[in-house]
Amino acid sequence: MTLDDSLVREKLLQFLLNEGALYVLLLDNQGTVLDASRYALELYGEDPRGRPFSEMTPDFSRHDDPRDFLKDLARAPQGLTISCGENLPQTVQVRLLDLGDQGWILLGEFPVEELVNLQESLTSLNAEAANLNRELYKKNAELKKLNDLKNQFVGMAAHDLRNPISAIFSLSSFLLDNSVDALNQDQYELLDMIKASSNFMLRLLDDLLTLARIEMGKLNLDIEPVEVPQFLRKIVRVNQILADQREVALRLVACDELPPLACDPLKIEQVLNNLISNAVKFSPRGETVDIAALRGADQVVFTVSDRGPGVPEKDRSKLFKAFSKISVQLPENATSTGLGLSIAQKIVLGHLGTIWYEPRHGGGSSFCFSLPLTPVIPPKDSLDPILLQGEQGGESSPSDDR
Amino acid sequence: MTVREEDYQSYFEALRAGRKGECYGWVQTWLAGDMAVRELYLAVFQRSLYEIGYLWETNRISVAVEHIATAITENLLSLVYPRIFGADHCGCKAVISCLAREYHQLGGKMVADIFELHGWDGYFLGANTPLSQLCSIVEEKDPDLLALSVSVAAHLKELDGVLAHLRERYPSLPVLLGGRAFQVGEGSSVFNQPGVLYVDSLTTLEDMLEGGSLSELCQSGGGRI
Fold it and tell me: Which helix (H) or strand (E) holds A301?
């Protein structure tokens, strides 16, 4: 049996032009490109068909008559290396097959040397990247150890300071409650200042202890199913007592039907208490703070919105950073440890959720956080202090006591 | 935990074929099974790269395949880092480097990691490190010892000059030598120099680190042991 010669030729040509990784150009007798293989088309990055070959390579354009170059090339048994643009490989070793009066076929071979050099460069770059990666791990481990030391120190200092300050707070409270008649107005005011300051220091120390514990990976979540509507109503009720003192109303505006939410209720309550107390703190008297819990595809989104001054855009990236200062003035008689939102963020991240700030439509702020609806066991890394710090900043990150 | 032979063979086939995902999977499985870093380095990384090197030397695989296998292994090392860099530090420092024009760096990097694993600071300078750069890092880090990795036997003849230079500039700095070049080439002329110690394998290095003989060497100011 013999093969049909024309069929074989046709199939081979089709393969060369459409499937093989070969550089093939068919030129007419004026040097215009009639057809090109897929590989050649990719190499040039634009369709050369219908264009004179002389436009496509500087080697060619040096000749007055482009055909002279093609004739020279046809006589070069080793072929020539021509450049073919900025794509890789940048050169191709071509040989010319002369079709007489009809034109030429340009056949290119892989520039093996260029490819080998390229691979060596990539291998070397990979090795350098791997070395930098190692250095990064090493530095990261060193930073982690320093951070642990810092947290240990802060934890110890806060713990040791807590008892004497607690005594100052309790004793000043006792004197204010029981010795009013023995104090003159100045003494009463001074004692009241001592009580307020010691109360603030106690809150600061509690926040510092909490932050140090979380950063050392001791968030210790007690996950249990929580019925969100009842949970939210209880929190709104408790916070309303404090809101009343500032003549601000709390309103549970929406609470979707939700399956029980797997979370640590005490810690999520801490987050909501922080967001609500901030919202109350920054609300003008007589205004309302809206609280909502809405169901998403696989998460629940909690939102606390106020009608206060809002957070300027330039401050939003540092909202969740501990001790960060923002330009919004605290209202009169309000205090801030600068740690609340940072703690809230860490608690939410510990639940594998996210927390963010949005300006409220019509003025004010909305602080939102989402928690996954499916029960999750947070991986140890999610509490990694370095990773947690990496989550800070950016539009999507809100700071406690603004 | 040790590497089962059939698992190693599967890993090796994946490495040779450039299937990095499969290689990652194997290493993660071994790490999850609490395999010791030493076992992973010796019985997997070192063994497979020696085999790849042999296949290349005997023309059974191309240089491209060797490059890809090396690049994959380079990246696999990072999977071990969380374990390596968590160790408590003992305060000792080692600088590990390849010589100029020495492009095989993985052995040296594994040595640096073994130092880290044993509480030393292992500063790895990478492949092809010129002597001047090596000296400036030595001056910056002030290490307790310097380790030089030589993989290609042809580079051994440069070693004499390098050691003489180091001895003159840092007379009390102990120098450790290691690498495949010493197993295939002649390195004995440098072994007798004071303050120079040849370590024939990662296992020996680990034994020395665990036995404390390296700390003794450093404390003795580089005297020959």
Answer: strand A299-305
Tell me the domain boundaries of chain B.
5-84, 93-219
Residue A130: list chain B partners with CB under 8 A: 74-75, 77-78, 109
Give percent of chain B above pLDDT 70: 95
Contact A211, A341 (CB under 8 A): no
pLDDT of residue A219: 78
Domain boundaries, position A20 = 5-110
Q: How many CB atoms lie within 10 A of CB A81?
A: 16
pLDDT digit string, tens, across residues A69-98: 777 777 776 777 777 666 666 777 788 888
CATH topology of domain B5-84: 1.10.1240
Using DSSP's 3-state secondary structure scheme, residue A303 falls into strand
B93-219 adopts what CATH topology? Rossmann fold (3.40.50)
Residue A398 placed within a domain: no
pLDDT digits (tens, 9 = 90+) for B8-40: 999 999 999 999 999 999 999 999 999 999 899
| Preceding omega of A385 cis (within 30 degrees of 0) | no
Cα separation, B83 vs B80, whole angstroms? 6
| Neighboring chain B residues of A131 at a CB cutoff of 8 Å | 105, 109, 124, 126
Burial A8-29 (b: 16+ CB within 10 A, else e): eeeeeeeebbeeeebbbbbbee
Do A145 and A179 belong together in one domain? yes
Q: Is residue A399 part of a domain?
A: no
Distance from CA of B96 to the nearest CA of A (A): 12
Residues A249 and A319 grouped into a single domain:
yes
Q: Is B126 on the interface with A (CB under 8 A)?
A: yes
Q: Of the candidates A110, A135, A152, which is a domain's last residue? A: A110
